[in-house]
Design goal:
By secondary structure, the protein is mainly α. The protein folds into two domains: about 210 residues, Rossmann fold (3-Layer(aba) Sandwich); about 90 residues, Orthogonal Bundle (Tyrosyl-Transfer RNA Synthetase), CATH 1.10.240.10. Helix content is about 55%, strand content about 5%. Strands 1-2-3 form a three-stranded parallel β-sheet. Helix 8 links the parallel strand 4 and strand 5. Helix 4 packs across helix 7 and helix 4 runs parallel beside helix 13. It is globular and about 70 Å long. The chain starts with a strand and ends in a 5-residue tail after the last helix. About 40% of the residues are buried. Bound molecules: adenosine-5'-tetraphosphate. Adenosine-5'-tetraphosphate (AQP) binds next to strand 1 and helix 1.
């Protein structure tokens, strides 16, 4: 084994192509070489308001999606965050090592809080510290994420370093980000300058792993295009064309330059047809397997419970050592 990886995904809605290409499909490959811990981060989800019944459903749905994508719960640890208390407990200790100035620099808070910053929850503001705790609770060596999480990963490294310095220990490993593949930042189908996101109000902005073939084809047909002849990669000048070429390359497992050359003289609509076919070919087995798994929610719960036990067996002792280092008396 080359190390221990931790990564998480929020149950804030159906997973989309950005989650899949930017993160999850790499998680599947990494299971072979790393001790892998994958978490449905439900405590992160409530940093924005969630309907309790929808949240319960989304936790199972995301777990089913991960398994359907190829995460093997017998090989990797798969669980939901709130069932392992060390995450929230360690977050408090780390919160006390994290200067407010570091949190003030986090761009995701600014984007998500928008103009209503004073009304945003303290949870949304301190979210990156909980993410640091998620990783450090396992002393994970590597964290595979999409580009959007890079800044939070740097904070996790800074927080680990601050703790080690404050207590004069070499306790926390500084986790390395792993930002892999061609599609590290998949953009919205409606606006090539915005990240594809679960919380975008337009369902046409993303391909969900739950979409059927007709919906996928329709969303790709309606994706924003531009009037320039042929397909070419130029992020600044042609963000939408560049995004679709990147998606194609990632799904086909081809270098982007090869895809660009292949479609250099194709018009947008011909290219979209080919992309839709490829998307359906790659995603429909996942959707079918997800539906099969979701027909037995009790089995998903059993998988998550088994994962939580294994996660707790790693994180519990690490938390107790942290408590000892900071000077807490333990029962
Ligand atoms: N558009 C994306 N392109 C590449 N990677 C992405 N990821 C998310 N969006 C893209 C990566 O997917 C993993 C899980 O993400 P998450 O759901 O926990 O959080 P997120 O980054 O906040 O994703 P969303 O879809 O934007 O969710 P909401 O709208 O709820 O905030 C992470 O590794 C992430 O980098």
């Amino acid at each position: 084994m080359s190390g221990r990886i931790f990564s998480g995904v929020q149950p804030t809605g159906a997973l989309h192509l950005g989650n899949y290409l930017g993160a999850i499909r790499h998680w599947v490959h990494l299971q072979q070489d790393y001790e892998a811990i994958y978490c449905v981060v439900d405590q992160h989800a409530i940093t924005l308001p969630q309907d309790p019944n929808e949240l319960r459903g989304a936790i199972r749905e995301v777990a089913a999606a991960l398994i359907a994508c190829g995460i093997d719960p017998d090989r990797s640890i798969l669980f939901n965050q709130s069932t392992v208390p060390a995450h929230a407990q360690l977050a408090w200790v780390l919160m006390c090592q994290t200067p407010i100035g570091w949190l003030n620099r986090m761009t995701q808070f600014k984007e998500k809080a928008g103009k209503q910053r004073d009304n945003a929850s303290a949870g949304l503001y301190t979210y990156p510290v909980l993410m640091s705790a998620d990783i450090l609770a396992y002393n994970a060596t590597h964290v595979p994420v999409g580009e959007d999480q890079k800044q939070h990963l740097e904070l996790a490294r800074d927080t680990a370093g601050a703790f080690n310095r404050q207590f004069g220990v070499e306790f926390f490993v500084l986790p390395e980000p792993m930002i892999l593949g061609e599609a590290t930042r998949v953009m919205s189908l409606r606006d090539g300058t915005k990240k594809m996101s679960k919380s975008d109000t337009s369902d046409y902005s993303r391909i969900n792993l739950t979409d059927d073939a007709d919906t996928i084809a329709q969303k790709i047909r309606k994706a924003k295009s531009d009037p320039i002849e042929g397909m070419s990669y130029d992020v600044a000048g042609r963000p939408e064309a560049s995004n679709l070429l990147t998606i194609y390359a990632a799904l086909a497992d081809l270098p982007r330059s090869q895809v660009e050359a292949e479609f250099a003289s194709a018009n947008f609509s011909a290219f979209k047809g080919r992309l839709a076919d490829l998307c359906v070919e790659k995603l429909s087995p996942i959707t079918t397997e997800m539906r099969r798994l979701l027909a037995d929610p009790a089995e998903i719960d059993r998988i998550l419970d088994r994962g939580a036990e294994k996660a707790d067996a790693i994180a519990g002792p690490i938390l107790r050592q942290v408590y000892d280092i900071v000077g807490f008396r333990q029962a």
